[in-house]
Amino acid sequence: MRSEEIRKLLGGYATGTLTEAEQQALFQAALEDQALFDALAREEPLRDLLRDPAARAHLLAALEPPPRRSWWSWRPVAAVAAMAAVATVAVVMARRPRPVLLSQALPPAATIPAAPPAAAAAEPPRPAVRPRRKPAPKAPPPVPVPAPAVLSAAAAPKAEGSVKDETAAKPAEARVEVTAAAPPVFSARTSLLATENQATPLRLAQPGARQIFFGTAQRALAARAVVGGLAPPAGLALRYTILRQDAAGAFAEADRTSLAAGDTVELRFTANTAGYLAVGDATPVALTAMQPYTTAALPPLPAEVKIVFAPQPQREAPAGAPITEVQYRDTYVANRLPGQPLTFTIQLP
Amino acid sequence: MSRDDILCKLRERIVLFAASHLSRDSAEDLAQEVLMLLHEKYPHLDRLEDLLPLSLQIVRFKIMSARRKAVRRGEYTQVSVSDIPLPDLEANPADSYERKEMLERLARAMGQLGERCREILRLKLEGKSFPEIQKILGASALNTVYTWDHRCRKHLLELMGGDWEGRR
Which CATH number fits domain B94-159: 1.20.1300, 3.40.50, 3.30.420, 1.10.10? Predict the structure, then answer.
C-alpha cells in the first residue's frame, strides 16, 4: 500500500473499523512518518469520544434521515388544534357579555300635569329585572313629575332614602336585562386525558437489544435518574456478525440462513462496554467498548458456540434471559439486568 | 519488530509530537512517563497494534493533565492559592462539558455533509469495515471507498474548524 493510500486509512482509526491488515499498515507507517504519527495523535480525541456507545448512538441519530410524515402522523396535531379551537370558542362564549339595555329614549311629554305627591308615591315600581326574551313592553306613558312645593313630609324621606333605587324606581326610563350565561361545554379536557392515557404504554415500553447496545435505553434512564442523582447502570450487550470464508480464503459477512455444513466461519463481536468475552471453552479475552473483536476460525459447521460476556473473566455464568434483535447481518444480544453476565448460545446450522 | 524496537521508535515519535504542544524538556519527560507506564502496567503487550493506540491515548491524557497542572500552578495566570478550588476526584465537569460540546459540534457538522458522506459515516459508526462498506455501497474498488472516506473526513474536519476538539 502506498503512503498516500495509507493516509486515507486515518478515517477508520477513530471509528475502530480498520481490518487487521489496514491497522498493521497504518501503524507501521506511523512509526516511520512523524506527520502521520501526529495525525494519528490528533485523531485520539475523536477515537476517545466514539468509544462511548451513547456518543455513537447520538451521532447515529443525527445521521438518520428525518422521517417522512405521512397523513396520519398529522392526526395528533390536528386533534390538538381542534381541541384548542373548541376551548377558545367555549371561553369566548362564556365571557361574552349579554346585551344590556342601559337606556331608552322616550318621547317628550307634551304637558306635565301637576299631580298630588301621594299619587306618585303610591304608584307601584316596575320590576327592574326582566326575564330574557320577554317581549319588550310598549313605551309607558309619561310619568308625572311631582311638584317639589307640594311634596309631603311623609313622602320626602322615602324619596331621599331610595337614591340607589331611583333608577329602579323609574323602570320606564332604564331597564337592565340580566340573564345567567349558559355553562360552557368542555370536551377538550376529556380528550386530552384520553390522549395522555394512550401515550403512557409507549413510554413504558421495554427497550430492545439494539437500544441497550447503543445506550439509548440508558440515556432515557439517565434522564429519569437525574433527580435522584444516580447514574443508571448499563446492561451488558453484544453485537455479533458471522463471517464466512469464501473460495479465495477471505472472510466476509454472511447471512445465517446461507450457511451450510462444512463452512468455515468466524464471529466478530462488538461490546457496548468493556468486559471479558469467553467463546466456547477458550480463555476469556478482554474487549474494549465499541472496538470489534474477531474470533479465530471456528470448527467446521454445524456448531453450537456458547458465549459468556461478563465484567470479570469467567467461562461459566448462570443462564439469564437475554433479549435478541437482528438487523441486517448484525445480531444484538443484551441483558436487561445491569451488571449481570450475558450468556447465550449461537446455533450455527 | 520486537517490543524494544517498537518502544524505541514510539519514544522518538512521542517526543516530537509532544514538543509541538509543550516545551522540549516537558516533551522528553512526557515521553519518558509514557514509556514507564507501558513498561510497568502493560508488560504483556508486545504488538504494535496494541502499543501504538495505547501510547497515543496515554500521551493525550498526559498532555491534558500537564496543561491543567500548568493552569492550576498559575504559570499562565497568577491566581491566589485561596481562589483555586479543590479538585473533585469523583467527576470532572470540565471534561464532561468539553466532551458534550464536542459531540454537539460533531453532530451539527455531520448534518452538513452530503448524502454519501453521511452514509459512509453511519456505516462506520455501526462498525462496518472498509471492505464491507465497499460491498454495501457497491463501489468498484476498495481504494474508491478509501478516497471517499478521506474526502469526507477532510470535509468534516473543515466543518469542525480544523480540529476535533475545537482548540484552534
Answer: 1.10.10
